[in-house]
Specification:
Radius of gyration: 25 Å
Family: Belongs to the TRAFAC class translation factor GTPase superfamily. Classic translation factor GTPase family. PrfC subfamily.
Helix content: 25-40%
Oligomer: single chain
Number of helices: 16
Keywords: Cytoplasm, GTP-binding, Nucleotide-binding, Protein biosynthesis
Shape: globular
Bound molecules: guanosine-5',3'-tetraphosphate
Subcellular location: Cytoplasm
InterPro entries: EF-G-like_DII, EFG_III/V, G_TR_CS, P-loop_NTPase, PrfC, RF3_C, RF3_dom_3_sf, RF3_GTP-bd
Strand order of the largest sheet: 27-24-26-25-29-30-28-31
Protein name: Peptide chain release factor 3
């Protein structure tokens, strides 16, 4: 039923409802690149298998940062892939893989409305999956699970589901179930539709899988005499013991629908696309501090979730990746940069299409645009059509690696400070100022240090060495009152620092040190994450 009193433009409501914005999360090698490629293939956005894969190998062919730099043009365009599927517009946001893994990955997840989690069926839940799912949980992002590589010798499906539930603390609702595995992988049974989709190996096939209706169908006994008995047993068990899919639970991030398949063989991929369209949410209302912003509001708004230095670092040209939260983007529009209190013209923003032949220059909530700028935009910045909003929820995470910056040429200390301040603001690395003015760098991924060292050299002409620092972890501090703050700062001065925005941080030398200090100061808040702004 449509609400005739709705204050929102109907056209905008219609366009927003068609958007699906998601990312794929997985441990390296589980099959994220393969699935990305197959989704684009089924979405009609690319014609040939191998396109995305080639980009990945180009990226991984070298660990040398200068080479990575050369690849940036490619990585900008592959950061967001937009394609149309069954009347919907799908935005697939790429999260960097493990070699260039950094805080970027976390922040990209704040800009999506759903995620597809890929699990390698031989390996189960792996370390990176746990981390990424924790980030999704900060916003209760709905998760669709794809258990991949069923064409290999893999673990028992019941075991895998139990592990997902135990380790990731999310309820599983199987939607498809494997019929055999490894060399005897015959297909999947769709629990809701009571039909078997027959597996055929092959990378290039794009036709629909053969369907056999009804689990009691005698055709199944004839075709799969060795495997069908097990499937019937399994299904009986599932129907008795496991959770049926419930849309509300999925949307609340509490339950994940689980699909089995083999990405490389194009099998199970269409079901994922269908689930994205049928179940994943369109863009939702977002908290902008003073109020919730509805996606179909007429006025444009959104936030920057990632910054990427562009191809020519000498000109300090950067692209800010901006998630639209409401209204409609049009080229040349004027917007307010809320933090800076200035007007800005969005003249040459990039819009993204997986199929690069199509040019587009509009966007609505859920879409991503890339804004060229020279450092005016930082992660977490909000742009609006006038209102002083401030979108929340883009996190800084406590770094896991620390290095002290030391100059080869001590006369360059001003440039070093300036460079680190700017790179810190951009979000390339976290920078803490210690007592006495020394700078400490914190990162989530080790490549971040390499990137920063290279950029300091290229863009600021500073040759810095990063030395290991005796720090285990950092915690942002909040104090109940001024007196506690002063007392704490006096006692702990040697373990204190300030982040780029001047917030006080406790730099613990060990887990033990952190625990002792927390016990001693029960009223002080020690926080492992902090929101921008
Ligand atoms: P990632 O992006 O998550 O790191 O994984 P990616 O898709 O690159 O896949 C990792 C490896 O797993 C690749 O093999 C890929 O071909 C393989 N793979 C992906 N899906 C399936 C599947 O359904 N079944 C099987 N058997 N293998 C799968 P590789 O040897 O590392 O690379 P390549 O030589 O195939 O390029």
């Amino acid at each position: 039923m449509t609400d005739t009193h709705t204050p929102y433009p109907p056209e905008l409501m219609r366009d927003v409802a068609k958007r699906r914005t998601f990312a794929i999360i997985s441990h390296p090698d589980a099959g994220k690149t393969t699935l990305t490629e197959k989704l684009l293939l089924f979405g009609g956005a690319i014609q040939l298998a191998g396109t995305v894969k080639a980009r990945k190998s180009a990226r991984h062919a070298t660990s040398d940062w200068m080479e990575v730099e050369k690849q940036r043009g490619i990585s900008v365009t592959s950061s967001v892939m937009q394609f149309d599927y069954q009347g919907h517009t799908i935005n697939l946001l790429d999260t960097p893989g493990h070699e260039d893994f950094s805080e970027d990955t976390y922040r990209v997840l704040t800009a999506v409305d759903a995620a597809v989690m890929v699990i390698d069926a031989a390996k189960g839940v792996e370390a990176q999956t746990i981390k990424l799912l924790d980030v999704c949980r900060l916003r209760d992002t709905p998760i669709i699970t794809f258990v991949n590589k069923l064409d290999r010798e893999v673990r028992e499906p019941f075991d895998l589901l139990a592990e997902i539930e135990d380790v990731l603390k999310i309820q599983c609702a199987p939607v498809t179930w494997p019929l055999g595995m490894g060399k005897a992988f015959r297909g999947v049974y769709h629990l809701q539709e009571d039909r078997v989709l027959r597996f055929t190996a092959g990378e290039e096939k794009r036709s629909e899988a053969e369907v056999i209706k009804g689990i009691a169908n005698a055709q199944l006994d004839a075709l799969f005499p060795m495997e069908i008995g097990q499937l019937r047993e399994d299904v009986e068990l599932i129907q008795g013991a496991s959770n049926p899919f419930m849309l509300g639970e999925f949307l609340a991030g509490k339950q994940t629908p689980v699909f089995f398949g083999s990405g490389i063989n194009n099998f199970g991929v269409q079901e994922i696309l269908q689930a994205l369209i049928d179940w994943a949410p369109p863009p939702q209302a977002r908290d902008a501090g003073s109020r919730m912003v509805q996606p179909a509001e007429e006025k444009f708004s959104g936030f920057v979730f990632k910054i990427q230095a562009n191809m020519d670092p000498k000109h300090r040209d950067r692209i800010a990746f901006f998630r639209i939260c409401s209204g409609r983007y049009s080229s040349g529009m004027k917007v307010r940069h809320v933090r800076a209190g200035r007007e800005m013209k969005l003249a040459n923003a990039l819009t993204f299409m997986a199929n690069e032949r199509v040019l587009k220059d509009d966007g609505v909530a859920g879409d991503i645009i890339g804004i060229h700028n020279h450092g005016q935009l930082q992660i977490g910045d909000t742009l609006t059509e006038g209102e002083a909003l401030g979108f929340k929820g883009i996190p800084y995470f406590s770094p896991e690696l620390f290095r002290a910056a030391r100059l080869r040429d001590p006369l360059k200390s001003k440039q070093l400070q300036k460079g680190l301040q700017e790179l810190g603001e951009e979000g390339a690395i976290q920078v803490f100022e210690l007592e006495g003015g020394n700078m400490l760098l914190g990162a989530v991924g080790v490549l971040q240090f390499e990137v920063v060292a290279q950029r300091l050299k290229d863009e600021y002409k500073v040759d810095a060495i990063f030395e290991s620092a005796d720090i285990h972890t950092a915690r942002w501090l909040t104090f109940p009152d001024e007196l506690t703050r002063r007392n704490f700062e006096r006692e702990q001065a040697h373990r204190m620092g300030k982040d780029v925005d001047g917030n006080p941080v406790y730099l613990a030398s060990s887990r033990y040190n952190l625990e002792v200090t927390m016990e001693k100061w029960p009223k002080v808040g020690f926080h492992a994450t902090r929101e921008h702004g």
